[in-house]
Amino acid sequence: MSDWTSGYVAEVDYTHDFFHEMTPAVMALAATSKGQKHNLAQTDLSYCELGCGQGFTANLLAAANPHIQFHAMDFNPAHIAGARDLAAETDLDNVHFYERSFADFEQEESLPKQFDIIALHGVMSWVSQENQQHIVAFIRRRLKPGGMVYVSYNSLSGWAAMMPLRRILLDRATQGTGPLEDRIAEALRFAGQLEGAGARFFKANPIAGSRLEKSRKMSRNYLAHEMFNADWTPFHFADLAGDLSAAKLNFLSSTSLLDHVDDICLTPQQRAMLEAESDPVHRESLRDVLVNEQFRSDLFVKGGRSHTERGAIGAWFATPLALTQRYNGGALRLSWRLGEIALDPAQYGPILEALQAGPATVRRLLDQGAFGQMTWGEISRLLRLLIGSGTLSPCLPLEGIKAREARCQAFNLAVCKRAEDSDTLRFLASPVTGGGLELDRFEQLFLLAYSEGKAAPVDWAALAWSILSAQGQRLHHDGQVLEQAEENLAVLQARASAFAARRLPLCKALGLIPASAEGAIAATTAEPTREAAA
């Protein structure tokens, strides 16, 4: 009997995460930041995700981007069944899930002939060399000219010291018996014993010890897929770029705009070394060593086209931006590879204040005088910092916002209702950015109460507590489990009040929920109250 898993972990489900870098608007801005043209402003696009896991990213993006047809595949039938359930629950008609292997995915007759975007998060590092070849062959045949590939993967520079330890962990887990989660825990304990016994490996590779400590605190589900597959490949950039060149792909850029700003990533001496390297592939390989890169998220393009200098600035001018973090006029502190980034409040303050009124294009901000006397070089650098740090986000055009709002709010209601039972889903869809915003379980329950017409934070806390108490759950506060109902309610009320002041306005501005409780999406649903059900 053949092993349908091909050595990939199947007995433990993958996490239900959303990956911001896979948002089409984010990919488009990464290209714009590098002066490259893209085809992602079209109204009829096709997007393929290879190895979609639970399919949550594909579902969220489909809700927020109805102008794009999403096609997502995974070999795990449980993942695909769950992804289809969520799509059906929220009436998403532009996302299609397939239970396929990389070897037979092209045999799917309902697939489009070619795609504008092909995306795969972490997959290349976690599958066999044979499956890597299937992936490259699929991209070669199915990506449109001018199309983009998003690929994220472990980088050899940052993982080299961990490779012997990872093998010990894998071998130890393989030798054990029982559930994989237990075997992972035992393997981590064994590695700790090695370190405690004075293994010289840890003395020669101190980063391995810190990674081991970090791994102990991680979700076992995540670790199973990250480190305990039969295949695990940290890539030297030049090797991956060489493989993708067989599909006529050229490197375009990192999706991280912070990595587009060299002076916050590299010292002057390092920048000089990098600038002396003329070959773009060799330059990226050298950069990985200079910054000790652990994980890359890259864009490749099939047929790259550069803007003229004027066209590149024009593309920036046409980009709409929105606030994605609360701004109260205080100091903004950012840090990256070299530590804290010096920012001038006189420069960023007017920009963030202007965007509190709603999304605006860079041109409109310029016309409003939000950039003061800054040069274009200073403006574009500051925008990269604000976007790369998550303070701002690129947006979709205003056209079609009403239809996107209805779809996103239906999707978000379904996600918030699932928060009644678990904290598995942690992102809601934004019709403004075309991406997601992270909210924890309590915040989702507060939004659920708000959508049902409950206007006061005290009522949101009461609804959350009625759900938690019926399930026998209690809150932790200052390291203690709160046993009394009054104590739990007090903490929930404090959290609800903070949410009302800090996060609810942002949720409204990004279109996650209706702007007011009147006409809320859940108000028309007829079901017993939770108090009665409890």
- Tell me the quaternary state: single chain
Structural class: alpha/beta
Strand order of the largest sheet: 3-2-1-4-5-7-6
Q: For the record, give the distance between the C-alpha atoms at the N and C termini, rounded to a whole number.
A: 48 Å
**How many beta-strand segments?**
16
Question: Number of helical segments?
Answer: 24
Stretches where pLDDT is under 50 for at least 5 consecutive residues are 517-534
Tell the overall outline: globular
Strand percent estimate = 5-15%
Major pleated sheet: 7 strands, mixed
Averaged pLDDT, please?
Answer: 91
Provide the helix percentage: 40-55%
Radius of gyration: 24 Å
What does this structure look like?
By secondary structure, the protein is an alpha/beta fold. Helices cover 46% and strands 14% of the residues. The chain has 24 helices and 16 strands. It has helices at residues 24-33, 56-64, 77-89, 123-126, 129-142, 156-159, 163-175, 180-196, 200-204, 206-216, 220-227, 237-245, 268-275, 280-291, 309-317, 345-355, 362-367, 376-388, 401-418, 441-451, 457-470, 485-502, 504-509, 530-533, and strands spanning 45-50, 68-74, 95-99, 115-121, 143-154, 250-254, 295-301, 320-323, 334-336, 339-341, 360-361, 392-394, 427-429, 436-438, 476-477, 480-481. The strands form five sheets. A seven-stranded mixed beta sheet has the order 3-2-1-4-5-7-6. A three-stranded antiparallel beta sheet has the order 11-8-12. It has a two-stranded antiparallel ribbon with strand order 9-10. Helix 2 (56-64) links the parallel strand 1 (45-50) and strand 2 (68-74). Helix 8 packs antiparallel against helix 10 and helix 21 crosses helix 22 (485-502). It is globular.
